[in-house]
Amino acid sequence: MKDFVLKDQKDQEVRLSDFQGKRVLLSFHPLAWTSICAEQMKSLEDNRERFASLNTVALGLSVDSVPCKKAWAESLGISNTSLLCDFWPHGGVAALFGIFREANGFSERANILVDEKGQEVFRKIYPIRELPDIEEIFSVIKGMQAV
Question: Which of 37, 63, 134, 137 is the catalytic position?
Answer without folding.
Answer: 37
